[in-house]
Design goal:
The complex is a heterodimer.
Chain A lengths: L1 H20 L2 H6 L4 H5 L9 E2 L2 E7 L5 H14 L4 E5 L10 H13 L1 E4 L15 H8 L4 E7 L12 E7 L9 E5 L2 E9 H17 L4 E6 L7 H14 L5 E6 H10 L6 E4 L1 H15 L6 E5 L4 E5 L17 H13 L3 H16 L14 H15 L7
Parallel strand pairs in A: 2-3, 2-4, 4-13, 6-11, 9-10, 9-11
Antiparallel strand pairs in A: 1-2, 5-6, 5-12, 7-8, 12-13
Helix pairs in contact in A: 4-13, 5-6, 7-8, 9-10, 11-12, 12-13
Chain B lengths: L21 E4 L4 E5 L19 E5 L8 E2 L2 E7 L5 H14 L4 E5 L6 H14 L1 E4 L15 H8 L4 E7 L12 E7 L9 E5 L2 E9 H17 L4 E6 L7 H14 L5 E6 H10 L6 E4 L1 H15 L6 E5 L4 E5 L17 H13 L3 H15 L15 H15 L7
Parallel strand pairs in B: 5-6, 5-7, 7-16, 9-14, 12-13, 12-14
Antiparallel strand pairs in B: 1-2, 2-3, 4-5, 8-9, 8-15, 10-11, 15-16
The chains are: A alpha/beta, B alpha/beta.
Chain lengths: 392, 408
């Protein structure tokens, strides 16, 4: 107990010096890269007034609002020094004001937690996907998803531990489509050297930071020779600067086939946008489904956390059967980003203890538990493991 | 068989039903009598509930697959990697079973002319069996993939892969039976790329109304023919609204003409996630080119790997058969370790296509009985057997199951 509180006080001493000067970039790239990045731009620190962080919260549609309210509940219960600034985005509106408000709020606060915003098919095609607009405007170029087999969740494959780094702003998601001749639609897939170098660099740095040994680039360069060929070339260039990390590449169809037969062979994977979408969903399915995996979108100045598979979950909205794990783990990633490590680990620990109890599994894991039961159990575990108020 | 020429009707694939078609040829039109329910020609009007035998007239002259003296001629393109050895086994097996098929072997090397020769041979014969031709990364990017060139030139617009759990092969998922129909000529594989600004590459993904309607129609017709009840369109129309939106719209239009078949759609990321958790929910799937590539590889992985699934590419006039996942298998070439099942099942699909159903059934039966013996599994299925052992065992099975020469 004494050791814990002394560690805490040491941590509090170090914290203010880091937060003001360096900002979020240190979090994602590691301490070795601070000087280079920060000389060129003023990176705004995440908002921290009186020791409390302010984080933008975008509830989204479907199961987003209920899960995020559970997150708020857990945070309040655990006395996490985070205040949420809630920004609603209406998916039915054609105007972009809502999402621009949300973007301004994220610029202000530096960090956000969001649910998925539905893309309504009834609106005209000029209305872009709101999630996509958010990612591209804030230049959240890296989507990081860590898929690992969780104890207590029964799956067909064991010992999976894959880190997927997906380019988040270009590729097939440029929303550039046109119909020059009626009945013939051309969609543009853009691959640029800069973005490819950037994401490859991010991938290798993250791999080095986390002690990973192998990075696999996923592509389809035998067909898209210029596009994916450029991506692959950029990855190879960056790889040459990291001799301690093995680099190889694999075509996306072979990758997905290997993933369903032997996923243990993969370590870190880096890929353009669409393949990232597919591969991350395959991996999420392998470790137990969309309700378990959190995702993070990192940019140079901002970070937005959400569930990895970005589902709205319309069919289970409001029924108290959604799995809160993914959103809670995403909030833990956010706490790590804000350097509130002890809160993050206590919530994470509580989530994994609750995951071990099969009777508390929600419907997507084959159980009958409700969302509120799971959250209650998590809070109980936090209470039992945490400090007693009498000791403070 | 009835008198008159047999006609190659690519729209009607009776791969597994084995029913005979009576055909007669008149000077101006072809009249074909079926003893199966007939699919109406264009975009679906409901099936009349009356008799099974229907008169279906085609006033179009279709090129028949070459058949001289009762023997079919089929183009064989060995390809690279494991292609040549597996094609060799196919030829050996066909000779052993006395299948009336002659192979016209066309080797495709790296030169431009070779693929033109191969295409001409396929146009001549109407049917082909091919191994995968390697696309060398070191060559300049103006050099298109040979496989792609073949598919687009011959307009083989439908790639059909039937993934089903085979008895005797242990997999994590059982009772998988998915028919994947993938658009084979457009989409992301148009090979149209340019670099207007250095460092910025634009790849064009083309979706056209006519091709989407065509593939959707093909999917629904096949589903109806095979008695399937559900077709799922796989897309990413929330992001690619115009492109995949057009594809989805075309599927919906065609679906309205097939009221007995349920139609739904699913986004590709959700589809792949559902495939790894609960693949039994899928029946027939139709999708553009790239998603088809990924989804078919996922399904192939689910049922046991690339060594087990055959694939077929159908066009209006031609059909080319190959392994479902189109691997060259360079790393296991000439090691006698490759699994011949996929190529052999592809040759059975070929036999069904040229209406040699009896032979197809014999070979297929022999393959399945060999597969159920675990000691005859090759390395990709976790066994130690060699390719030649497997082929030998298949030939033994054919011999024991077939008629004895004395009784013929």
């Amino acid at each position: 107990m004494a050791a814990h509180s002394s560690l805490l006080s040491v941590f509090k001493i170090i914290n203010p010096r880091w937060n003001g000067r360096i900002g979020n970039t240190v979090k994602v790239f590691g301490t070795t890269f601070t000087s280079h990045r920060n000389k060129t731009s003023l990176t705004p620190p995440p908002a921290k007034y009186g020791g409390r962080h302010t984080v933008t919260l975008i509830p989204g549609d479907g199961i987003g609002p209920e899960l995020l309210s559970h997150v708020k509940e857990v945070f309040r219960f655990s006395c996490v020094p985070v205040d949420f600034e809630v920004v609603q985005v209406n998916s039915a509106m054609e105007g972009e004001d809502d999402i621009m408000n949300a973007i301004t709020a994220i610029r202000r606060n530096g960090v956000a937690l969001k649910g998925n915003i539905e893309t309504k098919h009834t609106l005209p095609p000029s209305v872009k996907s709101r999630n996509n607009v958010l990612r591209t405007t804030l230049d959240l170029y890296a989507n990081v998803m860590h898929c690992q087999s969780l104890p207590g969740v029964q799956t067909r494959h064991q010992n999976i531990d894959i880190m997927i780094i997906r380019e988040n702003t270009e590729g097939e998601y440029s929303s550039l489509e046109h119909e020059s001749v009626s009945g013939v639609v051309e969609s543009l897939k853009i691959i640029t050297r800069n973005n490819s170098l950037r994401i490859a660099d991010y991938a290798f740095r993250l791999a080095r930071e986390k002690g990973r040994r192998r990075v696999t680039a996923v592509h389809k360069a035998n067909i898209m020779k210029l596009g994916d060929g450029l991506f692959l070339q950029c990855c190879k260039e960056v790889a040459s600067g990291y001799p301690d990390i093995t680099f190889d590449s694999m075509i996306v169809d072979n990758t997905t086939m290997q993933l369903v037969s032997k996923p243990q062979q993969f370590d870190v994977m880096v890929m353009p946008n669409l393949y990232g979408n597919v591969v991350s969903n395959v991996c999420a399915g392998l470790v137990g489904g969309p309700g378990l995996v959190p995702g993070a979108n990192y940019g140079q100045d901002y970070a937005v956390f959400e569930t990895a598979t970005r589902n709205t979950g319309k069919s289970i909205a409001g029924k108290n059967i959604a799995n809160p794990t993914a959103m809670l783990l995403a909030s833990c990633m956010m706490l790590d980003h804000l350097k509130l490590y002890e809160h993050a680990s206590s919530i994470r620990n509580a989530v994994s203890i609750t995951m071990n109890e099969t009777r508390l599994h929600t419907a997507d894991l084959g159980g009958q538990g409700t969302t509120s039961e799971v959250v209650q159990s998590i809070m109980r575990v936090i209470q039992s493991k945490g400090q007693l108020t009498s000791e403070l | 068989m009835s008198p008159g020429k047999t006609i190659d009707l690519h729209l009607f694939l009776c791969c597994d039903c084995g029913r005979k078609l009576q055909v007669s040829l008149s000077p101006s039109c072809l009249f074909v009598f079926f003893d199966i329910p007939v699919v109406p020609p264009l975009f679906g009007s409901p099936l009349p509930p009356s008799t099974q035998t229907r008169l279906y007239s085609l006033c179009v002259l279709q090129p028949p697959p070459a058949k001289y003296g009762g023997r079919h001629t089929v183009t064989l393109i060995p390809g690279d990697g494991i292609g040549p050895e597996l094609s060799g086994y196919v030829q050996e097996l066909f000779r052993f079973c006395c299948v009336p098929v002659d192979f016209e072997v066309v080797n495709v090397d790296s030169a431009e002319d070779d693929i033109t020769n191969a295409i001409m041979a396929i146009r001549r014969n109407g049917v082909a069996l091919k191994g995968n031709i390697e696309t060398n990364h070191n060559l300049p990017s103006s050099y298109k993939s040979r496989n792609n060139l073949l598919r687009t030139t011959l307009d083989l617009y439908a790639n059909v892969i039937h993934c089903q759990s085979l008895p005797g092969v242990r997999t994590r998922h059982s009772n998988v039976d998915i028919l994947i129909i993938r658009e084979n000529t457009e989409g992301e594989y148009s090979s149209l790329e340019h670099e207007n600004v250095p460092g910025v590459v634009e790849c064009l993904k083309i979706i056209t109304r006519s091709k989407s309607l065509r593939i959707a129609d093909y999917a629904f017709k096949t589903a109806r023919e095979k008695g399937r009840s559900r077709v799922t369109a796989v897309h990413k129309a929330n992001i690619m609204k115009l492109g995949d939106g057009l594809f989805l719209e075309c599927c919906r239009e065609v679906a309205s003409g097939y009221p007995e078949i349920t139609f739904d759609s699913m986004i590709v990321d959700n589809t792949t996630m559902q495939l790894v958790s609960r693949p039994q929910q899928f029946d027939v799937m139709v999708m553009p080119n790239l998603y088809g590539n990924v989804v078919s590889n996922v399904c192939a992985g689910l049922v046991g790997g690339p060594g087990l699934v055959p694939g077929a590419n159908y066009g209006k006039d031609y059909a080319v058969f190959e392994t479902g996942t189109r691997n060259t298998g360079k790393s296991i070439a000439n090691c006698n370790k490759a699994n011949p099942t996929a190529m052999l099942l592809a040759s059975c699909l070929l036999l069904d296509h040229v209406k040699l159903h009896a032979y197809a059934q014999i070979i297929r039966g022999a393959i399945l009985s060999t597969l159920s013996e675990a000691q005859l599994h090759t390395a990709d299925l976790g066994g130690h057997s060699s390719t030649s052992d497997v082929v030998q065992s298949i030939m033994d099975a054919v011999q024991s199951a077939g008629p004895r020469t004395l009784s013929m």
